[in-house]
Amino acid sequence: xxxTLRVALIQTRTPASQEAALAQATPLIEQxxxxxxxxxxxxxGSNLLQRDRAKMLEALKPLEDDPYVQGVRALARRHGVWxxxxxxxxxxxxxxxxxxxxxxxDAGRIVQTYDKLHMFxxxxxxxxRYRESSxxxxxxxxxxxxxxxxxxxxxxxxxxxxPQLYRALSKAGVGVFAVPAAFTRPTGEAHWEVLLRARAIExxxxxxxxAQGGVHEDGRSTWGHSMAIDPWGRILAQADGDEPGVVIADxxxxxxxxxxxxxxxxxxxxPFAGPVL
Length: 277
What we know:
It is a single chain. By secondary structure, the protein is α/β, with parallel strands linked by helices. It has helices at 18-34, 53-59, 67-79, 163-171, 185-203, 254-262, 265-268, and strands spanning 4-11, 39-41, 82-91, 97-104, 110-115, 121-123, 129-131, 143-147, 150-154, 176-178, 206-209, 213-215, 221-223, 227-229, 235-238, 245-252. Helix 1 (18-34) runs parallel beside helix 3 (67-79).
């Protein structure tokens, strides 16, 4: 297993078609390659964002036919780099879709996928209402992807509010979490950084959070501020705001073991009986 890893977080403002999304992402991925990135991570909903349910269902393609996914596979193969599509929104063969992370090897092969477990079904204080479960079929399994740098824990956006998922991944040997997102501006401003740093600190793990940012073609507004965090909770690199761009971070993977030895919460954890109601 390699002990160091240069990662690139691609921050995008994904439009409402796969072809336009690929055109936006391609120069950013190539910029990351030029910067020496070995693993490139894109945000949630990298292939298209469309709030209108009918238009979304019409635009969706199965994973194997999605133009964005196939285009990124070709880029990974051409440049000899690993790419995690933070998620692609893909057809499920029904009236629902999958919000699916897709890890692509440097040979352009899909080596692992993960369907978002937790659906963002909320009514925000500013009046915004979200019901992801009305369109997306949630996953049922936590997923680990094997890479040359060790196991990578796959999660997506709202998952970050469920620490038990990250604990389970950590106890299965994961020291690097991918947390691609399309965070809303109100929740992003309040919670984005603190939640990501908490997941890193409580598990002694790296967090790679590539994000959507800005006002999108479909009218939504996302927070941006992509960031990479080390196992001590320090921000290694981050985007200044919500503009599309590339964030580069160098990971010393030995820090996972060093941090977990210093704060051995994984070893100190004990089973306990639940409270009596």
